[in-house]
Amino acid sequence: MDRGIPTEDAIKTMREENAEYLVGTPRGRLTKLEKQFLECDWKAVQSQVEVKLAHDDGDLYVLTRSKGRQQKERSMRQRKLKWLWKRLHTIRSMEKLKRDDLLIKLGSAKRDAGNAWRLVDIQLPGPHQPVTSETFNFTLNRKKLKRARKSEGTYLLRTNLSDTNADELWKRYIVLTEIEQAFKELKHDLSVRPIYHRKETRIDAHIFVSFIAYSLHVTLKHKARLKAPGLTPRAILEKFKAQQMIDVHFPTTDGRTLIMPRYTYPERELQLLLTQLNLTQPDQPPPKIEQSQLS
What we know:
InterPro entries: IS1634_transpos, RNaseH-like_sf
Organism: Kiritimatiella glycovorans
Protein name: Transposase
Radius of gyration: 29 Å
Distance between the termini: 70 Å
């Protein structure tokens, strides 16, 4: 099982080894399976998630459509396309722009626009033509835009588990997303990195500490989902960075030092977060007296 898109050689190898696989597939294969998908209806497998099934070359293909993902992809595409359209108008309005400079600016715009670049047809001036509004034009390809809108929120899965129902396939695929998210949180949020220990006891300790850190991270994420939706564990920890513990030193007349450890008072936003998560600050530690080293 892999969320990536394996090559045909990798699929062939898995078949020869009688391995079961559930993998992602390029959307380009939809063209070959379009007739089968059009003949069947969408089946709901989860809230806002629907699937269609098709068979080809001994494999089962699962076309999945997620309304949440559709809204996200559409919003991203609209934002990128709007930016690209504005950028192209800005480039065309530049005075005394040479063709080589135009190509450089278009290359930069292509990089930043991502997939939205393919939705615009651009007419470039010839090698010896000046850059004007007549030689440099761009139009929106509505046919490609319509096709892009249809594919938003969809992805194609491929499996040799042809006797498994759609609900079970979807659950197995969700397991992959959760595993991938766990690795992402370990790497980015917790910054867990490999350390090459020489002793087995240190390896065990490293694994144990990493597991405890991840467990606390998941617990915080669960609490946030129930009480403070929209906040990620990383955002919560960033807010907690403002909370500090300091030692206030007061020298006394007899040469000793009165030390008062104190937690800083949380700001209003942090206090609201503590209340929502049902967390309370520990009591302020008692003061202590330190004897002067000179005495």
